[in-house]
Amino acid sequence: MNIIILIAILVVAFLIYRRYRDESLLGMIFKVAIKALSNNKARSFLSMLGIIIGVAAVIVMMSIGQGSKEAVRKNISQMGTNIIMIRPGADRRGGVRMDPSSMQTLKQEDYEAIRNECKYVKYISPEVQSGGQAIYGSNNYNTTAYGESLEYMDIKQWEIEDGTCFTEQDVQTAAKVCIIGKTLVDNLFPDGQSPVGKTIRFKSTPVRVIGVLKSKGYNSFGMDQDNLMIMPYTSVMKRLLAQTYFQTINVSSLTEETTDQTIEELTEVLRRSHKLKDDAEDDFTIHSQAEMMETMSSTMDSITIILVVAAAFSLLVAGIGIMNIMLVSVTERTKEIGLRMSVGARSIDISVQFLIESILISITGGLLGVLLGYGISALATSLFGLPTSVPFWSVILSFVVCTIIGIVFGYIPAQKAANLDPIEAIRYE
Amino acid sequence: MSEDNRKVVIELKDVCRDFKVGDEVVHALRGVSFKIYEGEFVTIQGTSGSGKSTLLNQIGCLDTPTSGEYYLDGVSVRKMGSNQRAKLRNRKIGFIFQNYNLLAKTTAVENVELPLMYNAKVKPKERRQRAIKALVEVGLGDRLEHKSNQMSGGQMQRVAIARALVNDPTIILADEATGNLDTRTSFEMLVLFQKLYNEGHTIIFVTHNPEIAQYSSRNIFLRDGQVQSDTINHNILNAEEALAKLPKKD
Ligand SMILES: Nc1ncnc2c1ncn2[C@@H]1O[C@H](COP(=O)(O)OP(=O)(O)OP(=O)(O)O)[C@@H](O)[C@H]1O
Ligand SMILES: [Mg+2]
């Protein structure tokens, strides 16, 4: 789509050029510039090379940045933008060190209070995690056990592929049962037998496998989403960790639109449940998925900016390269300049001619760079599966930047040419 | 002859031009003074190094005097801005260089078009037509698209003449314009110059050939950067008649 607009612009520019090339002094100077450049194709190309590489680098960086941002957004919104996470402890962005007891503020009472009082909450699941080794027979694999409630399956949209989910009964009795992800299945049961009904050991506790999760594959950060086991939260707390507090409470709001009301409601209920005084700070933190998405995008943006700035520096170097070539060209063509002056070219005519030449070099380089950038982006996507998307404004920006480079770095050579003395110049050999 | 009624186009007053070459100073012109009236055909002669080209560069507004004044149409060239001098070179003066000075790798037509390109009043179509007309006039109608490096010395010289005439200048300055031409072609050029003279153009012609001087209206001799003699030629020979007497080429 973008490339079509780009081509359309180029065609229009070419038609305008065709229409006016003979009409004016400027058009004539254009013709002379094109001729001068095509008289020395190899050198013109070499002086363009820096611009080509620089612009291509900028385009590729921008396209990867934009592409991954879009991929992350898509990923997160697939996970559900109505998801809200409650963590213990005050907002840690201030950087204040927390005393460990403040990280133990989310309790069973909170869970029940939210479940009973919050109208906007659709699903709720307390969460405890424990990392460790899962063993079956002679196979073992490092994984994480997530202790959750039944509603977790709805919040995260997990589906059972084989077997069943655990029951309310299992939660009440802290049963040693689990549902495992595809990666665990592959690594613990490599011979293809069904894991359902088998008893594996996790951190030396025997746990019975009652179901297998449908695979979700890797997420856009390259994380394996299938390397996990889900157990009733009571089981993880009592059998594995012997702790009485939660690490997270995951909640899903009724709809995406009610997220803000839900957060307000949750804050109110939790403050009451924690008996916080009016002037006391929250001893918990609530994040919505949507908010995380914003944070993530802005992080990606800053990474993209850093990469693009680095690539832009190569454009500066390219500009210096053009200036160098133009200076050589002015010296070489001293006699021609003198001759043009002797038949009536003014200084401004001469300097415009050289400026147009350097702009032509940098814009042509920019054009080739954009095409190369598009090519590399497409290649990166098809070969390495990198998400890329060339933002159209970056193409426009490249052209603007190239024109500026042409003018800035063409200025000194153009002045040098314009200030030549006609008699001296015409005698130059 | 009531010379004083005629319009003075070119007036030099004690023009000196020094060149610094290393530590030495070369005095190429040491106080040259003369007036040239509208419609004169002046030849300038002198030994090599006597300052003819330097003088012509002054008259052609390519260079300015070290001291002294040069008035073109009554205006001091030294006091003009460089853009004004460029405009004069473009519209008023046609200059034929001693060593042609054509653009390399460029066709005859494009070379002749060059002065018109810096004249915004001339439209592209007219530009080409006028360039072709000027080339036909110097007998190169069949060499329009030849590049400068594909031409003989004489042909290049004639391209240079065409280029000087294409803007229809009132003053024509020629530095050895027939130096590389055979007798017949140089007489053909001389016919052309006499035609321009009869049309009222002012012509200044540097030459080594005393024979050519007989076809002009006034002869100036330079020596060591000074005017040695300046005489009116009352018996101007007719180049057309001389050409007719020459044996035909084929
Ligand atoms: N740009 C310059 N720099 C230094 N010296 C110069 C320059 N131009 C001319 N001269 C000197 O000025 C003197 C006059 O040179 P000029 O070219 O006017 O001679 P000329 O009469 O045209 O000779 P020729 O008949 O050989 O063309 C010479 O001694 C020359 O060396
Ligand atoms: Mg000379």
Contiguous low-pLDDT stretches of chain A (5 residues minimum) are: none
Order of helices and strands of chain A: HHHEHEEHEHEHEEEHEHEHHHHH
Strand content of chain A: 15-25%
Beta-strand fraction estimate of chain B = 25-35%
Query: Average pLDDT across residues of chain A?
Result: 85
Biggest interface, and residues per chain?
Answer: A-B, 23 and 28 residues
Question: Explain this structure to me?
Answer:
In chain A, a hairpin with a 2-residue loop joins β6 and β7. Chain A has helices at 2-20, 25-39, 41-79, 108-117, 152-155, 168-173, 182-188, 233-241, 259-273, 289-332, 334-342, 347-384, 392-418, 422-427, and strands at 83-88, 121-136, 139-148, 160-163, 177-180, 199-202, 205-213, 229-232, 248-253, 284-288. In chain A, strands 2-3-8-5-7-6 form a 6-stranded mixed beta barrel. Chain A has 14 helices and 10 strands. Chain A has 429 residues and is α+β, with helices and mostly antiparallel strands. Chain A is elongated, with a radius of gyration of 33 Å. Chain A folds into 2 domains: 2-75 and 295-426, no CATH class; 106-282, no CATH class. With 250 residues, chain B is α/β, with parallel strands linked by helices. Chain B has one domain (3-245): Rossmann fold. Chain B has 8 helices and 10 strands. Chain B has helices at 52-59, 82-91, 108-117, 124-137, 153-165, 183-198, 210-213, 239-245; strands spanning 8-21, 24-37, 41-46, 67-72, 75-76, 93-96, 171-175, 202-206, 218-223, 226-232. A 6-stranded mixed sheet of chain B has the order 6-7-8-3-9-10, sandwiched between helices. In chain B, α3 packs across α4 (124-137). The termini of chain B are far apart. Chains A and B meet through α2, α11, α12 and α14 of A and α2 and α3 of B. The structure holds adenosine-5'-triphosphate and magnesium ion (MG). Residues 19, 21, 26, 28, 46, 48-54, 98 of chain B line the site of adenosine-5'-triphosphate.
